[in-house]
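User: Sequence recovery, please. Input:
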């Protein structure tokens, strides 16, 4: 896992966590490859655990 930890800073525009959809304020994580925002490490970890499963299901459905 590679991420960027941003402390004490809010994104320029109103931004929401990719996983839980909560508004980001104060500090957040950003994926190093995609630059997608997450409200904390828990949401980042959950998304990266679930992403391969979701992708496989989508491929199986098509």
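Assistant: Recovered sequence (62 residues):
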């Amino acid at each position: 896992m590679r991420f960027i930890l941003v402390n004490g800073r809010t994104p320029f525009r109103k931004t929401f966590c990719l996983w839980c959809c909560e508004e980001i304020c104060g500090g957040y994580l950003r994926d190093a490859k995609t630059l997608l925002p997450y409200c904390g490490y828990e949401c980042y970890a959950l998304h990266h655990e679930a992403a391969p499963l979701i992708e496989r299901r989508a491929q199986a459905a098509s």
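The CA atoms of residues 42 and 53 lie 18 Å apart.
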